[in-house]
Amino acid sequence: MSMADKTSTDMADKMSADILKIKSLSDRSRMQLSSDGEWLAYVVVDPDRKSSFEQQTDEFSLYQLTGALVENHSQEVWVTNLKTKETHKLGADEGVDWAPRWSPDGKYLAFCSDRMGTPHLWVWNRVQNKLRQVSEKPITATHGLEVPQWTSDGKHIITKLRPEDIDLSTIISYRTIPQAINVWHTDTDKQAASEEETDQFAWFKGDLCVFNVDTGDVQILARGLLTRFITLSPDDTAVAVLNTIGEERLTAQETQYELLLVPLDGTPVQSLATNITDRALFVSWSPDGKHLIYAQPDGLYIVSVQDGEKKNLTANLTEKLRFYARPLWRPSGKSFFCGIDGNIWEFAADGSDARKLTEELKKHIMGIVAKVNTHVVWQSGDAQSICVQTHDPETKKEGFYLINTAEARATCLFEEPISITRHIADEHDLKVVSNDTQIVYRAQDATHPEEVWMFDTDSGERQQVSELNPHLRDLQFGEVRFVESETENGERLRGVLMLPYNYEEGKQYPLVTWVSPGSPLSMYIYTFGLDKYEMNFQLLAARGFAVLGVDVPSRSSKSPKELPDYVMPAVDKVIEMGIADADRLGIKGYGYGGYFTAGLITQTNRFKAAVCGGGFYNLTRIYGNLTKRGRSLGIRWIEDLMDIGGSLWEQRQRYIDNSPLFHLDKVETPVLIYSGEGFDGDDYTQSGELFSGLRRLEKEATFAWYRGEGHLVRYWRPEHRADCWERIIDWFEKHLS
């Protein structure tokens, strides 16, 4: 090896090691701004942070052994002064911290932690820089979106206490559940809300209670709730709770919730609404605390907490009722704003005078900025405008716009080639906090990982608040660019290309194509590493690979035989550009992408290496799968969401045609398969079938099973995640060198 080659290899090794050590901001937690606008609290994921106890179980569980959630693994709470940039990491280097919330006066920060071996409520005294545990009583581990609620006097905190009758071991491991006889009948598809049938939700079961911050005394308000979201009324009289009822049908994946009102004076709990689903899981208090807004499949409702009278505010709208931004009120309480079907609307409090405010703004609107720790909208100094987060569908640039509510006119605050973190999954709030003139947000770009940033609406200045990864400061990363191509029918195709970190024009490189049907991957052009959930592709760029992300339509609109027409033209375009070596092509995908990758290599031998992660490969098995809790979730998923066109017996051949497992005899590409346990063990089962088939056919394949891990690689234990990434890199280096 020449000196130049050795230097290049050493640099690649250093880059890989440094990328694996990246600290990131938690997906499942919101930043918290103190009432004076000076201090910001946020949750950092540090891969080097140690758990309170090492995980011993080899099966997947939502819990760690302490009772903290697996999704909160390696998390710690940081606080930063926005003026001086003084930063504190709160407490020990072991355990899991999550869900910070400032007291109303901004002097104390409450958060949850298992640093003493069990989840407890903790408080940090900002003035004295001291930490203390509020009570010896353990709390139920909540996800980061369900934060402790302070009363306005700063003397009490509302959260969930772990019920005394819960045996944590039965939640961590199903193997500890006593043996029983389960009997299911085919004459009903309805899900009863009995305790036995809702035990799948026991991981967030708790007694809603009030902690006295000074004494640690606890007052229980309601026992045995399966809360998904809690929020205290502005007048401190009651807590609104979205409480889990169960699944609507045994063949459905949709969970049902009820809206409860839990008074703080000890009077009985009231049920205000039912039939609330995951698709619109939000609640918004009116400023006077007398009304709540919530959503059901048929509309947006307002309900009086005094007499329970309710009204459908969207009964006369013709738009598709797709809610994507939680309603936020004007301070006066006379009207509110809500995101519906891609636009921002303003409604009078009685539902009249509904106005669409953003029809002329040709951007994707991600959500509305709220005033710090309230259900009130942020307004400009003249109270004429609100603020929305935007994404340009063509340039992929992101930023913020002011919307003049009187004139329905948009004004750009800024728009840059960056990716501003947006809400995920069941969230309807932006990951943005604001006070009078400051908007604090999370952002990254193609060559810089995510950090906290602040925008001053008066001066127009932007400044970086955090610096989580100073060790990356002097490293060079792979640059990105758009790739344009078209199908044989002339349909426009778009993708994103990441170049090797040491790219030289005119030199050809091995190319790894990344696929995820239904996800426009070019949207992630300004995301560091392109993908944050499964793999940071700068790891491949550091090893001399080019990476191509292709915008592939969803399975519901195209058959598997058509999908290669959306990948190969983009691959050929990169070859034509002189960047990719036609003899060194690889392909990888995860989940839906794993399914597509397996299907693609049954139709072409052009790829010399393939990686399939956490995918599904046999639709008949998914369709017939019965979970240990009696649920047949695959039926609706395949018939409806995959648009297969009918049942297994009505469309038998389509199930076979759409299952890569039945076509493995055509595979000539070496395949690396990997997975955790996944959903009810499905990832392992499906991956195992793929591997078994390839082994029987004497094809080259390797299967890496990460015991005890769930579906999303991002939430795997750091050592497993690092091992997985190294195996992927080694596989492509072995077959594409």
What is this entry, summarized?
The protein is of the alpha+beta class and 737 residues long. The chain has ten helices and 42 strands.
| Mean pLDDT rating | 88
Which geometry do the CA atoms define?
Answer: globular
Helix % is 10-25%
Q: State the name of the first-level CATH class of the domain at 472-618 and 659-736.
A: Alpha Beta
Query: Any guess at the CATH architecture of the domain at 472-618 and 659-736?
Result: 3-Layer(aba) Sandwich
The total count of helices amounts to 10
- The proportion of strand residues reads 25-35%
Number of strands: 42
Largest sheet: 8 strands, mixed
Gyration radius over CA: 26 Å
How are the strands of the biggest sheet laid out side by side?
A: 35-36-38-37-39-40-41-42
Q: What is the distance, rounded to the nearest whole angstrom, between the alpha carbons of the first and last residues?
A: 15 Å
Uncertain runs: 174-178, 190-196
Q: CATH superfamily of the domain at 472-618 and 659-736, please?
A: Alpha/Beta hydrolase fold, catalytic domain
Query: What's the assembly state of these chains?
Result: single chain
CATH topology of the domain at 472-618 and 659-736: Rossmann fold
The assigned structural class equals alpha+beta
